[in-house]
Amino acid sequence: MDDTEFLSRVREYGEYDSLGEATRVTTVVLRKLGARLSPGKVRALGAQLSPLARDALGPIEDGRAAPDYGIEEFRHRIAQALDAHPTTAEWDTSAVLATVAQAVDDNCLHTVLGSLPEGFAPLFGRPRNGVSTPPPPEMG
After folding, report:
1. pTM recorded for the entire structure
2. Residues 104/124, Cβ–Cβ less than 8 Å
3. DSSP annotation of 122
4. Which residue in 24, 85, 92, 137 has the most C-beta neighbors within 10 A?
């Protein structure tokens, strides 16, 4: 997925008026995600994202441990960075992270979700445990 397609999806999912707003939200959300992940996870995720999304994850600081905070602190940090109401910030976060989930392969997504505490998977458009279940077989 290239930059244009990534931002177009974020714009669609977030219902933003412009690509500029989608870019601003993408940059903030991915910067906060990159700060929450270990350098190895940032590197693996960035390898599958568009250049803009990869750069938005921020610099990779080898040797840095991933901070240990949960979903509530993550949401708070994004709301603060976007200067937005928490509900709006959660909408923004989901628009970006659901796009990330579509841009990377399942192994990468499982690795990222496996490194995050409970509660992050729904922001990526995944069930609470992060595992997508196949649809039931058709009866016939």
Report:
1. 0.88
2. no
3. G
4. 92
